[in-house]
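Input record (Table S2, row 138):
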Amino acid sequence: MERTLSIIKPDGVKRGVIGDVVKRFEDSHIDIVAMKMLYMTKKQAQGFYAVHEERPFFDSLTDFMSSGPAVVMVLEGEGVIARYRKLMGATNFEEADEGTIRRDFATDIEKNVVHGSDSPESADFEINYFFNSFEIVA
Ligand code: CMP
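Output record (adenosine-3',5'-cyclic-monophosphate complex):
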């Protein structure tokens, strides 16, 4: 059984697609085992995306991620990291497959509605960044 971190980013919350995104998880039989809304500070966003520190988009990305509330979730299931990445579609919504979350809702390469962990190692770091063990339904 695998876990991954999902974020509905501030653009997704502002545009009212929390329900649409959650529905796709439910329709795909992906279990949500933790969920909360939070408003990240710039520092918290910088810590979360520390792996992208050297990228030219780091400052803009962390400004965006701290620009409004986001919904963070832990998803659980067999192969859920890859399954969720398939549901999200490519980072750049213009390259994302038809029917994916980013293709349907994203407006920009940065404002791409959702985030998902890209490996078991990053899932572990990212889940622990936002949740303690008491907040995850066993
Ligand atoms: P995410 O999957 O959360 O991982 C890193 C984020 O950085 C990515 O989604 C986008 O929001 C953002 N990002 C990635 N590449 C670019 C880019 N070329 N320009 C701007 N933002 C980017």
